[in-house]
Amino acid sequence: MAPIRPELYDYYFDRTVIADIRKKLGLSQAKLADLLDVPVNTLSRWEANATTPDADTLAAIYAIAKQKGQSPSFFKRRESMVKASKQRSKLVLAWDFQNLCLKVEDIEDEWGYMKEYIDLLFPATVANQVLKAYCPQPTGLTYFSFQNGVPKTTVKATFEKLNFQSFEGYFDADSQLTRDSLQECMQSPEKTIFILVSKDGDYINLLKELKRIGVDVYIWSETDEISDRLKASVEDSNLIPWDKPYVVDQCIDVIKELKGKPVKKGTFGQTCRERLDENEIYPQDVGFSRRNPYGNFLTWLESQGIAEVKTVKEPDLISIKMKR
């Protein structure tokens, strides 16, 4: 059998996580080795990057961490793969509005946050975005906006105003969305990013097929409502919690207002919190670290090539410069 060539794959094992988890849990090497029932020198070799633990050991480390409120991620996406994703030139977004809907008056605001988020992460797709919304036959308050008791606009009209192709009626949205998405993505799969807006596990086969042909697949969804099967069909980094675009947009507005001026880390976090207080949604609610949410947010911006963070003066005076 030919040896595995890890450089061919999107993700690699991050051995630094083991030492990081141990330190966060306040455990010595001897204590963690005892919990795992392995020699302490074996654990030392793992942390030194000399050898790699097997899957059962990683599962045991994960279980120990979860008991203490930690959620370790043992794998990182290769920087070259991230850059390749950002260079993709086409974006296809399919919103299953039958499955994940809003009041009509909320659509424009939510899409505004998501649109800014997409353009920030995938700037090469700005000129080539295919947007589709699949809506049921309009009934009830969800699908109309009223003014003085009179219907003012509909979901379909709102989506079309936002440059979506809107499909409305009594039809099987799952089947039509699947057919349309495959057709759009198959034209140039290696250049395409696909975002599914849904929480329906029935789309797993669609996502598997898109990934098989080389499409970069993302899901934007309510993480506390999404089907476990659907959630497991993409990597954690490709699952966009519903409110993450809002949090990112608001915190980036704070950075833009700073105009590169030095700021204390705590002051930056407090300013972001004040901006987010209106809706009481914060970075730790959308996947960022609970221990250091605003620091983790800045690290994420750097990893995405969106911003540059420099230390002006130790220990906590920084400057933040947007790259886009």
Describe the structure.
With 324 residues, the chain is of the alpha/beta class. It is globular and about 65 Å long. A hairpin with a 2-residue loop joins strand 5 (144-147) and strand 6 (150-154). The chain has helices at residues 16-24, 29-36, 40-47, 55-67, 79-86, 104-121, 155-161, 173-185, 204-212, 228-231, 244-258, 265-276, 293-303, and strands at residues 11-13, 75-77, 90-96, 129-135, 144-147, 150-154, 165-168, 192-197, 216-221, 239-241, 263-264, 307-313, 317-322. The chain folds into 3 domains: 12-62, Orthogonal Bundle (434 Repressor (Amino-terminal Domain)), CATH 1.10.260; 81-241, 5'-nuclease (Rossmann fold); 244-322, Arc Repressor Mutant, subunit A, CATH 1.10.10.
